[in-house]
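Internal tracking record. Fields below are filled automatically when a chain is submitted to the structure queue. Please do not edit lines marked as system-generated. If the sequence contains nonstandard residues, flag them in the REMARKS field before resubmitting.
Queue: standard
Priority: normal
Entity type: single polypeptide chain
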Amino acid sequence: MTTPQASAAYDTDVLVVGSGPAGGSAALALATYGIRTLLVTKYGWLANTPRAHITNQRTMEVLRDLGVESEALAHGSPSHLMGDTVLCTALTGQEIGRIRSWGTGPGSATEYASKSPSQMIDLPQTYLEPILVSNAAARGAKVRFDTEFLDFTQDEDGVTARLRDRVRGDEFTVRARYLIGADGGRSAVAEQLGLPFDGRMAKAGSMNIVFKADLTRYCAHRPSVLYWVLQPGAETGGIGMGLVRMVRPWNEWLLVWGYDIEQPPPDVDEETARQIVRDLIGDPELPVEITSTSLWTVNHTYAKAYSSGRVFCAGDAVHRHPPSNGLGSNTSIQDAFNLAWKLAMVVRGEAGPALLDSYTAERAPVGRQIVDRANLSRDQFGPIFDVLGVGAGSNENAIAEGLAALRARTPEGAKKRRLLEEAIQLKNYEFNAHGVEMNQRYESGAVLPDDSAAEVWDQDQELVHRPTTRPGAKLPHAWLVDAQGERVSTLDVVGHGVFTVLTGLSGDAWEAAAHASRDELGIPLRFVRVGDDNSLDAYGEWARVSEIGEDGVLLVRPDGHVAWRRATAPDTETSARDELLEALRRLLGR
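SYSTEM-GENERATED OUTPUT FOLLOWS
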């Protein structure tokens, strides 16, 4: 294959535009893999508001692989403080219902805990971004703040980006092998690249109010990330209810309220913001410190392609949606994790450029799914409003009458209570969508399907995570025991930037095949034998989820997804070597 051009011809291997979850994690992964990386952002520092916050298990697994999970756990609020989601008329008012959320309920806690070595946490963006960017810099990435992306040109050999130093005011260019546009929902990179989009921008208007107030007496006994408030005016724009969101328990908060997108954007001064806060809390004398206010729009837009030539986009640049389900930063980080190992292997000359085509093939369907899911979850508040008999133009009397009818000791009241229970259960698709978060199945040139029958889903695909070793799926988690008696996850023995050949005690043929393939292709290739002293299947968990025999094999990609599998070993070591080598060549475009 063609040897990559000398590094001297480039200022950097990869230029990353944007320092949010997508850009920060791309820079972190690339630097971890030893790729020269320059991250630029037009801002003087990282996130100044705690916008994204739900950090799901798959993202925590990514952070675990990149060696920063412990920092995330140290800065995030643990899962037991994340639910119950509360529906109420004010924090001091009547409760309408509660939803056990984010896998914290007794019916889901075991399922969540058994499917991953990592726990879900609440990690506001103001804490997440410094973890990503500081570790990227510590591992060799160059980071430039106050550096604005202007435009780019690309050719067969690379990308030339024009940038502006916003401190000095001068313009300069950077030559890179590849460019990643992770510059948010108004991405200049995606716009210039001309990516094809479907959907609609600016469906409704919302405002964020970040504030500090001690709400311990209203929240500590019912810990939650989200307190949804039904009040007059909540149906205008936004999500259909007011939201009081915990940033730090129980004294730092973010409030979401709507505005009419058809009217000029409101001017939310400090006194107006303070009044909205007090109204939703239900305490007119509450001491409130307003930290910031901002406006945003509800979008339903996704890109059908994520790249063109040597330019790639990730994160909100390619999927734009409301915060329902907490999927935004998670999907952004997972975009970057998917792309980074592929770029690294191509830059190092270990894979052909065709490997990069798999990025759109794998991540665009995920982006569309989460945009549709987040918008549907937003709309699924409707049945709750219908049961209560409230909607556009409802006033305090209508809400009070709706609640009174709900609590009536009559057949009609009993019917309303049953309907409310059904409506609240529907919200599991927002607050307990474990399958949406974990069930990605990739189909691309970077996955070699086997001859197994089509996958059968015996449980709800959006609510329940179904582990499998099918090519394209994430490797299932199972606890192993190492030589020191410590528990390690199957996810800990794969990934970390390299392919892994994973077999059992009877898989001697695959060890020889792995060594031969590594030498033949000149790539790092890890060999793991489950059952030996370093990875004992002490609980029998791996035997139950592996779906292959002891002499079978899984070829696991650097991102932890299964690329190829064989249920049993062939008759000879030569055949095993030839099959593994052929699989790797096909995957790497060699």
